[in-house]
Amino acid sequence: MISLAGRDILHTWGKFVFTGVGLGLLIGVTLVMAGVYRGMVDDAKVLLDNSGADLWVVQKDTLGPYAESSSINDDLYRSILSLPGVHHAANITYLTMQVHKDEQDVRTMVVGVTPGNLGVTPGWPTYLVAGRQLTRGHYEAVADIATGFKLGDVLKIRRNHYTVVGLTKRMVSSSGDPMVFIPLKDAQEAQFLKDNDAIWQGRYRTEANPAFNRPNVPDLLDAVIASQSTNSYVNAVLVTLKEGYSAADVAQSIQRWKRLTVYTRAQMEGILVGKLIATSAKQIGMFLVILAIVSAAIVAFIIYTLTMDKIREIAVLKLIGTRNRTIASMIMQQAVALGVIGFVVGKITATFSAPFFPKYVLLVPQDTIVGFICVILICIIASLVAIRMAIKVDPAEAIGG
Amino acid sequence: MQGKGIRIENLKKRYGTGNTAVDALKEVNMEVAPGEVVGLIGPSGSGKSTLLKCLGAVIDPTEGRMILGDDVIYDNGWNVRDLRALRRDKIGFVFQAPYLIPFLDVIDNVALLPMLAGVSNEEARKKAMVLLEALDVHHRAFAMPSQLSGGEQQRVAIARGLVNRPPVILADEPTAPLDSERAMAVIRILNEMANKYETAIIVVTHDEKIIPTFKRIYRIRDGITQEEVGEGRNFV
């Protein structure tokens, strides 16, 4: 038996292809939306992978340092280092801000990293694509290439200038902002640095406070002002473990003795994926549902219209003895063919357009397979309206009078 | 008539019930022998189309008998379980307009019926080509219907009606869209095919050009058929 659907498609291929392209663009948007979600999850995982930590030590009862603000003293890492099972502990700061270069203004996550060695000290960029790692204590930066900065560029963070000495890749925050690594001391200063007027007004207020400006204690005022202009806090301490130690056991030990909150890798991933991007995921989910409904409506409308155009032929086919299931199969095959054309166009569109999106779009084969199955199911369901109409066609319509 | 052909006895068709009932066919009696072409003539609203639909197993008669070949297919109820298969295998249709399937080429338009009956594509196309050759449209076998002239399309439609070698063909005003010359050609072809394939052909028409070509006609008026036998123009 010849394929009636195939012949009809070949006969009206232009209509099919153009409809398929239109549907494909819609499917492409759907795949990109799924890719945006996957990208967000991947960004979160990359953030954790790149930190190189086994444990995140943060302010007690907070979800820091990524999902909530966290502030702990920068000398706590020493006492953590002394606990059994801890291999390395390093302070780290995270600050999302606009970084300026000439007239350019890029949203980044500025990471303050402790001086140390690559592969040993957690928090460092794990690899470079150009230049070198930070070697000086001040005014050097390693930037992700997504920032658009180049080696030798001079960046302005708050009032200070930093020279880009290295470039890294795929170092992003959980919201996809590229990272700029600077020395910890500079980052601590950047986090709490006020403008000149604010500093001046702060000093004036302190001087005016009789509790700090006692006539018979001349050094007290200077000490108070000095403490106000320095920052001894970091957002978290990243910890790596010695071999053979359980992350949960060491985390429990730190929580018990240091009265801090500690997260393992799995817990931190749960916070990032389950809490930080949960709302975005729901938003994307809603879009996917709407796009699926719109796609189904379009396929149903197109197939219904194509079937309406063939009412007389369907009546003739039924009159000459064609079974209902042959006609239903023809309509369903056309709907599926439309879906396949649409999916191929959509996949190509998504693949080629993904790199141009400002946020990371990750197209995974699993989503492609699920997407394909969903498209085919939607097309089959959408064809049911047209099939119902075709089955109701009276073969007597082919006989005039 | 013996053996084959079609015989209709006291066929009635009533639409609706009670006060609104309409008797579209009151008393239809017909007999068409194999190889014979008869005309079914009547004014609009006389019941031609209803009779054609009953004969084509598209609607159910109310009562009567229909005998197709040796089989009583209707006797106050269908004796055939699968009317679709009956239409496919035992009844050929030729319509006022050719109604060819626009997305199939000529040969597959004709071969579709045997294919639907389970014949292999190759075999079905062979059968189709034999008929296309007989109707002299074989040279357009791989053209699309839209590339054919009106006369060629009608010949292809006749080939489609004949391809399963049905004992009866119902032709619903097959010459209506054609000029005199082409109309006469179609009637000549129907006569040739009826002779060649021993098929009984009922031609519904009110085309005065072709009425004289029938040796026997049935007039239908107010749902009642009346047989007339004569030669040529006596019918007009």
Features:
heterodimer; A: about 400 residues; alpha+beta; two-stranded antiparallel ribbon; about 50% helix; about 15% strand; B: about 240 residues; alpha/beta; Rossmann fold; six-stranded mixed beta sheet; four-stranded antiparallel beta sheet; 6 helices; about 30% helix; globular
Low-pLDDT ranges of chain B: none
CATH class annotation of the domain at 6-99 and 166-235 in chain B: Alpha Beta
| Low-confidence spans of chain A | none
Whole-number total of structural domains of chain A: 2
Q: What is the residue-averaged pLDDT of chain A?
A: 89
List the chains of the largest interface with their residue counts: A-B, 26 and 32 residues
- Number of helices, where a helix is a run of at least 4 consecutive DSSP H or I residues of chain A: 12
Mind summarizing the main beta sheet of chain B? 6 strands, mixed
Report the structural category of chain B.
alpha/beta
Strand sequence of the main sheet of chain B, in spatial order? Answer: 6-7-8-3-9-10
Order of helices and strands of chain A: HHEEHEEEEEEEHHHEEHEHHHHH
- The fourth-level CATH homologous superfamily of the domain at 6-99 and 166-235 in chain B is P-loop containing nucleotide triphosphate hydrolases
